[in-house]
Structure formats: C-alpha cells, structure tokens
C-alpha cells in the first residue's frame, strides 16, 4: 500500500506543478504588458519589464545653468550646479557631446569646445570652466549615465485617455455596444419562444436555418450590406452598426435561447394554456423570467463580442473622432506609435478593462452559455 | 458624451418599440380574430396559425436582410467587375486561382486550420484534465480562460510586445528576444521571418481559444459516468490509461464540437493578422485579403469572390451542424 500512496502523492505534485506552469505561461503575456503600462517611458525603452523591480541604468541629457549665472573666479569663468537639481542620485559616467555621452568617469575633466572643461562629480555636482566669459543665452548640454530606482507612474494612462483621445473612443464604444447588446435579446427571445413552444409548419426548417446561419462568415455580408446601408443613408451611422450587430448576433441568440426555453418544464406552459393565458402572457409572465440565466449568458457573449469587435466597426463606422471605437483606435496606434510601448500598453489595458471586469464578475453565466451552446451539439 | 446619450435614447426607443410591436400586433390579431362569438373555434385556430409569424417577424426580417440576402448578393457580385455594374463571367474566379497572394492566403489558412484547432483543443484537454484534479483548479481555470475576454487587437498588442525587436546592440525589451539572447546571444526580428511568423500569429489565437476548449471539455469530463472509471481503477488501469482509453473516447462528440467551433473561427481570422503584420512577410490570410480588396482595392467583385471561398470552406461544417441539430431534435 505504501508504494501506491507514494505514487499518488507524487502524481499530485506533478499535476500541481504542471498547472502552475500552464497558468504562468498563460498570464505572463498579459502581466508583462500590464506592468509595462505603469512604467516610466524612458525605462520601458531601455530595459525589459521583468527587470522593472530592479534599479536600471539610464542615459540622461540636461542643460547646465544659463551663462548669466556664471561666476568670475580669478579670471576663470565658472558655471556650476547639480545635474539632479534638488533631488539626489549617482552619476556613473558623463560626457560633453551626444557622440560620446559616457566618455568620462566622475571627477575627470571633460573637454569642450573653445578651451572649456567640464567636471561632473559622482553626486551630480558639475563645474564648467572657461578662460573666456560664457556667451549665449542657454546652458551647455551635459550627458550622463545614472542608476535610476524603479519608477511606476499613472502618467501613461493619463496620456492615452486625454492626449491620445482614448477617452472619447471609450464613450464611442459604449454607444455601439449597449444598443447592440440589448436589442437582439428582445427580438431573439420572442423568436426563440415561437420556435420552442408554438406549433406551425416549417418550424424544423427554420431551426435548421438558424443553425446554418450561425457559421455564415461575416466577410460575405459586408459589401452587400454596406451598399444597402449607403443607399438608405445609414452607411456610416450608429444606427447602421446597431442593426448590423443585431443581425449578426441573432443566430446565436435564437439558438441559445431556444435550447434553453425548449428545456423549460412542459407542465408549467401547458397548465397556463389550459388556464386561458395567451402566448403573449405566457411569454411575458412565465418564459421571460424563467429564462433569465440564458438571457444573461447571451447578453455577456454579445457584449464581449461587440466590445471587442474591430471588423464590423471598421466597415460600418467611420474613423472620425465621434465614431472611432477603441479597437480601431488601438489598431491605429499600433501603426502610428509602433515603438511607443508605454502608449500601446496603457491603451490596450484601457480597452480590455471593461471586458475583464465583466468576465470575472459574470463568468458563471458565460460558462453556462458556452455549455448549453456546445456540449449539447455533441 | 453625446453618443452615449444617443445610445441610451436608442435603447429606450428600440426596446420600447420592440415591446410595443409585439404587444400591439398581438392585440390587433386578437381583435381581428376574437376568441369568442359565433366563429370562436375557427378564429382561435386562425389566430394561432398567424401568431408564431408575428413573434418571429422581426427576427426573420433581420436574418434575411443581414445574413441570407448577402450570400446571394455576393454570389451575384462575384460574377461582376470592380464596381458591380458589368457582368464579367468567371473572370474573377480565373483571376483568383492565378493570384499569388490568394494562393499564399489559402495555404496560410490551411496551416492555421490544422494547427490552431489541434493545439487549442489539445491544450484545452490537458488543462481540463489537470485542473479537475487539484484544489485550486477553478482559480487556475479562470486565469487560463481570461484571454477569451480580451479583444483580438488587444491580444495582438500583448503578443507584439513579446515578439518586439529593437535592433542590434540595443537591450531587448521583448520577452522572446530576451530569452533568445540569453540562450544563443542573438536577437531576431521574429515577426518578419517566414514561415515562422505565421506560427507566431497562430500562438495568439491558440492562447485565446485554449480557455474556451478547456471550459467545455472540463464539463464533458465531469459528465463521464463514475462507474466506467471505477471499473477501470479496479482493473488496475494507470491514470494515463484511464485518461486516454476510458475518458477521451467517451467525450469524442464534445471534442468534435470544440474542434469545429474553433475551425470556423480560424477560417475567419482577421484582426490578429491585420494588427500584427497586415499580411506582410507571407502571413496573408483569406479574411484579410478580402478586406484588402474591399477597402484598398475597392473591387467588390474580387472581394466577394474571396469571401465566397471562405463560405465554401465553412459549408461542410455548416451541413454537419445542421444534421446534428436535426438528429438531436428527433
């Protein structure tokens, strides 16, 4: 028995470690971007996010004090100050030109043009000495390399929401999503009830048609519908995209709701009929309240799908300020700000924040909807 | 803000309008065919023959306009030129099969079709089997399931960051290149290397879809009758044998459903390719090619032809689904 118990606990260990491995593999991509979205712009560019908790070395460029602060020390004109200003830090190396920004160690004399010299100490104090009076209105450039402590900031978010206009897109996305989620539910619920509990010729064919329409590629629909929308004047309007999302979402809505409604106990509906309730009453008083879980499942599906959709929005909405949705904005940023990861990371998280909240708070319904849609089919 | 107000107003109008339609149409029906009086019996029968169509009216209308009509219209467009005005016979189809980009897209789509459903279902099955055996399984599941909530564009940003390449002599900030540098000392521009880049794009979709496969397969695994497993344990089967010989064969039906669902998704894959490479470096796929011809090429004939190819590829699954649904209803 010992050996069996031994292999069993070994197995448990293997399983646990494998799951940990899988989970880490699955959350590291998102985690990396999440950490990056809070990092300082300069730090993202020079070090991987996995080093974000450690101090990093960074090259910095500043200007010295202006020449009008110079002091005449026995014929040598001196400008002095501290590269860190009022803060503190440590200089590892410094330079006087952009070609060699780390040419000198702290305390060494760096050569500049016109016989001037520059000294930067490790604590950041600098002195620029010149045999002639310093001229010009701006100070000289000082390049130095320093050790920076990890810095986390909300600036990136502030920047994308206001400067990159993601806030506006956020509202646009809401304006697309809410009606496109609510309207198909009502339309589908009535149809699902008819397909589940009313007898009429052609019912089986209609159900088969709904199942068939589930997989029709949307690509097929774009050109004909865009022409249609243009001809009736809703080519690039919110109304157009609401209708489009409603149409595209209906097969799944009807399919899910019909499966659920058909599974309601026959006795309830029959006895209501016997009591003289009309179909409209049965639907409103009995079926609708009982179908809440299925309605919720579909609502979440549709919400996530519409919120995350790029294709339908690109086709049926314009890309002006008042219409560009977040996925569209994100795609634009990927093109125009390709290397600015602080912008991309923060934008990505603004756009996925709402779906993630919905997902984690309503996961129960989502799973139930998935199961009623798929497991039965097998 | 204006849009949101408009959206809220639309919901009110839309919902109210829907309810009003259903309510009034029922009232009208009852008024025309009252369920009492001399013809009560016949009236009730007539009314109940019409009522289903009132209930389904808006749905049938929307489905016809938004899904059925486009199929036929696309077919018509595919035999016409760029503007849709002149009949050109099978020119578009002839062009299609000689077009380099189309053949590349088709090949890529086939590769996606093999790799993504297989990998997602495989990982999903693995994750389902493992997480069902541990105490923190539900927590692990919801973390693996999470990418389902992320948009394809968002996921593309997440993964593009991993594949990021800064150039030589610069500290790499992309995870893949950091690992490559640590192992071999050389960083690469992964996204531009053919044919590896297509697989890197597939990883994104696999990452998203594994959670879906896991959730469904895990429910199926739990639905397996205990007795079959107990019998196998008593007969001395090892855990691996139980899994592959007893459990997996009993959930073939569900595996097939998961597989086909992901297959359909893969045939339509678009956002990931658009956002990460826009079809450059040999990564083009059908859906993105169609999009190219629709917007950049402004050629409704060719775009429709490409879309129809996707439709043809989906059709076998559509028929299979319909047959399953019909069998289930009987």
- In the CATH hierarchy, what is the architecture of the largest domain in chain B at level 2? Orthogonal Bundle
Query: What is the CATH topology classification name of the largest domain in chain A?
Result: MetI-like fold
**Beta fraction of the residues of chain A?**
5-15%
Class by SSE composition of chain B: mainly alpha
Distance between the termini of chain A: 40 Å
Structure description:
The complex is a heterodimer of chains A (378) and B (330). With 378 residues, chain A is an alpha+beta fold. Chain A folds into three domains: 51 residues; 93 residues, no CATH class; 217 residues, MetI-like (MetI-like fold, Orthogonal Bundle). In chain A, 58% of the residues lie in helices and 12% in strands. Chain A contains 14 helices and eight strands. Chain A has a five-stranded antiparallel beta sheet, with no helix packed on it. In chain A, strands 1-8-4 form a three-stranded antiparallel beta sheet. In chain A, a hairpin with a 2-residue loop joins β2 and β3. The longest helix of chain A is centred in the first third of the chain and has 36 residues. By secondary structure, chain B is an all-alpha fold. Chain B folds into two domains: 76 residues; 237 residues, Orthogonal Bundle (MetI-like fold). Chain B has 14 helices and no strands. Chain B starts with a helix and ends with a helix.
Brief synopsis:
Helix content of chain A is 58%, strand content 12%.
How would you summarize the topology of this molecule?
The complex is a heterodimer of chains A (378) and B (330).
Chain A: H1 2-37, H2 41-46, E1 56-63, E2 71-73, E3 76-82, E4 91-95, E5 109-111, E6 117-120, E7 125-130, E8 141-148, H3 155-163, H4 166-197, H5 203-213, H6 219-231, H7 238-262, H8 266-274, H9 279-290, H10 292-308, H11 311-316, H12 326-336, H13 341-361, H14 363-374
Antiparallel strand pairs in A: 1-8, 2-3, 3-7, 4-8, 5-6, 6-7
Helix pairs in contact in A: 1-13, 3-13, 4-7, 4-10, 5-7, 7-10, 8-9, 10-13, 10-14, 12-13
Chain B: H1 2-32, H2 40-77, H3 91-98, H4 100-131, H5 137-145, H6 152-162, H7 175-184, H8 196-222, H9 226-234, H10 239-250, H11 252-267, H12 271-276, H13 286-296, H14 300-329
């Amino acid at each position: 028995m010992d050996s069996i118990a031994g292999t069993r606990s070994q197995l448990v260990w293997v399983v646990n470690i494998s799951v940990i491995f899988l989970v880490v593999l699955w959350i590291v991509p998102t985690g990396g971007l999440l950490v990056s979205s809070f990092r300082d712009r300069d730090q993202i560019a020079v070090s991987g996010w996995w080093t974000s908790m450690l101090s990093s070395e960074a090259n910095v460029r500043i200007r010295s004090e202006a020449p009008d602060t110079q002091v005449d020390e026995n014929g040598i004109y001196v400008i002095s100050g501290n590269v860190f200003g009022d803060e503190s830090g440590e200089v590892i190396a410094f330079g006087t030109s952009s070609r060699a920004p780390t040419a000198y160690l702290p305390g060494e004399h760096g050569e500049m043009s016109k016989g001037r010299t520059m000294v930067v100490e490790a604590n950041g104090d600098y002195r620029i000495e010149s045999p002639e009076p310093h001229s010009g209105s701006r100070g000289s450039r000082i390049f130095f390399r320093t050790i920076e402590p990890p810095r986390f900031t909300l600036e990136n978010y502030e920047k994308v929401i206001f400067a990159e206009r993601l806030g506006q897109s956020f509202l646009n996305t809401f304006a697309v999503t809410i009606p496109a989620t609510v309207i198909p539910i009502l339309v589908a619920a009535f149809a699902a009830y008819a397909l589940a509990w009313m007898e009429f010729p052609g019912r089986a064919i209609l159900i088969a048609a709904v199942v068939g329409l589930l997989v029709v590629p949307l690509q097929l629909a774009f050109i004909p519908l865009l022409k249609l929308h243009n001809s009736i004047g809703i080519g690039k309007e919110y109304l157009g995209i609401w209708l489009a999302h409603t149409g595209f979402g209906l097969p799944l809505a009807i399919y899910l709701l019909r499966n659920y409604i058909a599974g309601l106990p026959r006795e309830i509906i029959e006895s209501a009929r016997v009591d003289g309730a009309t179909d409209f009453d049965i639907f409103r008083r009995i079926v609708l309240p009982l179908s809440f879980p299925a309605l919720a499942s579909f609502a979440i599906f549709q919400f996530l799908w519409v919120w995350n959709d790029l294709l339908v929005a690109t086709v049926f909405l314009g890309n002006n300020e008042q219409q560009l949705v977040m996925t569209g904005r994100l795609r634009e940023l990927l093109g125009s700000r390709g290397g600015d990861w602080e912008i991309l990371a923060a934008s990505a998280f603004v756009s996925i924040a709402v779906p993630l909240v919905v997902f984690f708070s309503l996961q129960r319904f989502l799973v139930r909807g998935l199961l009623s849609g798929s497991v039965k089919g097998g | 803000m204006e849009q949101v107000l408009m959206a809220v107003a639309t919901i009110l109008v839309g919902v109210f309008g829907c309810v009003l339609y259903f309510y009034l149409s029922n009232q009208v029906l009852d008024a025309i065919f009252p369920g009492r009086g001399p013809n009560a019996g016949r009236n009730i029968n007539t009314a109940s023959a019409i009522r289903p169509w009132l209930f389904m009216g808006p749905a049938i209308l929307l489905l016809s306009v938004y899904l059925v009509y486009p199929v036929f219209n696309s077919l018509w467009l595919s035999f016409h030129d760029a503007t849709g005005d002149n009949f050109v016979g099978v020119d578009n189809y002839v062009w299609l099969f000689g077009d380099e980009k189309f053949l590349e897209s088709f090949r890529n789509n086939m590769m996606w079709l093999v790799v993504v459903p297989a990998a997602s279902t495989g990982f999903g099955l693995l994750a389902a089997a493992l997480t069902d055996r541990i105490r923190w399984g539900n927590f692990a599941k919801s973390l693996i399931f999470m990418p389902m909530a992320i948009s394809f564009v968002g996921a593309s940003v997440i993964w593009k960051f991993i594949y990021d390449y800064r150039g030589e002599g610069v500290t790499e900030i992309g995870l893949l290149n950091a690992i490559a540098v640590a192992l071999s000392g050389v960083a690469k521009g992964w996204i531009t290397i053919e044919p590896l880049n297509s697989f890197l794009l597939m990883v994104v979709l696999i990452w998203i879809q594994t959670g879906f496969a896991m959730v469904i397969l895990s429910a199926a695994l739990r639905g397996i009758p205990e007795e079959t497993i107990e019998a196998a344990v008593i007969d001395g089967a090892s855990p691996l044998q139980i899994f592959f010989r007893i459990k997996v064969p009993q959930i073939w039906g569900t595996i097939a459903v998961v597989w086909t669902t992901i297959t359909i998704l893969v045939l339509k894959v678009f956002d990931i390719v658009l956002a990460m490479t826009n079809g450059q470096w040999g990564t083009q796929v059908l859906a993105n090619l169609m999009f190219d011809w629709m917007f950049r090429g402004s050629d409704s004939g060719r775009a429709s032809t490409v879309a129809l190819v996707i439709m043809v590829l989906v059709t076998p699954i559509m028929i299979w689904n319909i047959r399953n649904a019909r069998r289930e209803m009987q």
